[in-house]
Amino acid sequence: MYSLPEPDPGPEPEIEPAAPRSPWSAVDIVVFAVFFLLTVLLLPYSFIRIWQIFNPALKVADLTAVDQVLLQGVLNVVLVGFIAFLIKVVHRQPFLETIHWFRNYEFPNSFLMALGATLAISVLIVSSFFPPSSQPPIERLLSSTSAMYIFAIFGIGVAPLFEEVIFRGFLFKVLSDIGGPGTAVPTTAALFALLHIPQLWGSWAGIALIFLVGYVLSFIRYRSNSLIPSFIVHTSYNAMLFGVFALGTFVQKGAT
Question: Which of 51, 108, 191, 208 is the most buried (most CB within 10 A)?
Answer without folding.
Answer: 191
